[in-house]
Amino acid sequence: MSQSLLTSTFRNAMEPLTILEIEKQLQKLPPEIVDSINKADVTAYSLNRLPPMYFTTQKGKIWQQQRSQKLADMISRVVSLGIKAAQRNNKIFSTPLHPSFKDNKAVIDRQKPILHEFNAMIPLATVEIERQLKVLPNDLSRTINKVDVIAYTLNRLPPLYSTTREGWIWQQELAREKLITMISRMVTLGIKAAQKNTSVYVKN
Questions:
Q1: φ/ψ (deg, to 5) at 119
Q2: 8 A C-beta contact, residue 62 and residue 200
Q3: What is the pLDDT of residue 103?
Q4: Which residue(s) pair with 119 in the sheet?
Q5: By percentage, how much of the chain surpasses pLDDT 90?
Q6: Deepest in the core among 48, 62, 82, 141, taking most CB within 10 A?
Q7: What is the mean pLDDT of residues 168-194?
């Protein structure tokens, strides 16, 4: 299950709502303040404090969007905190994970689906899914939709978005140290749910 496959078949419905809220709040600030804010950092800060809502189907997308819209007040509060944090941390950050992150405006360009790549929890969950599936009988393993398992799992784990290579590495190390048991448990539940095909998060 490659990273490219995963990032092309499931998304976090919370990302576009967060981006829109960032745009809205920044429009109310003086241009000189807006220019000093790293929007990528605001986005990562916010997404790490909001519940993940991954989906794998069009129906799941609509359902998750409806759920996430009920969290408008929470999104607004978290984004406000993220903007304040970015103002306090007004500095040049380390090497971005993606070239487009060199342009602070790129993170709110909805035509560039790069945000999803920056949740450091994705590769950790992916590795654990592969590990657990290898110990299952081949005939059983082949019936399981791996993308459904990853979405189910990520919706039950804390998101770990990062904008720099250094942050990406640190987030993964922290997760391996403190969250590996939780990751394993959520993957196990995700595999069971995929077998039963009962996950409302990813249901067709």
A1: -90, 105
A2: no
A3: 56
A4: 161
A5: 42
A6: 82
A7: 93
Query: φ, ψ for residue 9 (rounded to 5)?
Result: -120, 0
Residue 77 CA to residue 85 CA, distance in Å, equals 12
Alpha-carbon gap, residue 186 to 180, rounded angstroms: 10
Confidence of residue 121 (pLDDT cuts 50, 70, 90): very high
Residue with tokens 């129906």: 59
Model confidence, pTM: 0.81
DSSP readout, the chain?
A: --HHHHHHH-EETHHHHHHHHHHHHHTTS-HHHHHHS-HHHHHHHHHTTS---EESSHHHHHHHHHHHHTTHHHHHHHHHHHHHHHHHT-S--S-BSSGGGGSGGGGG-TT---GGGGBTHHHHHHHHHHHHHHTS-HHHHTTS-HHHHHHHHHTTS---B-SBHHHHHHHHHHHHHHTHHHHHHHHHHHHHHHHHT--TTT--
Neighbours of 153 (CB within 10 A): 29
Instruction: Name every residue whose Cβ is closer than 8 Å to that of residue 14 and which is 6 or more positions away in sequence.
Output: 47, 50, 51, 52, 53, 68, 75
The tokens of 153 are what?
């799992």
CB of 126 within 8 A of CB of 186? no
CA dihedral 165, 169, 172, 175 (to 10 degrees): -120
From residue 112, how far is each of 8, 99, 115 by CA, in Å? 13, 12, 8
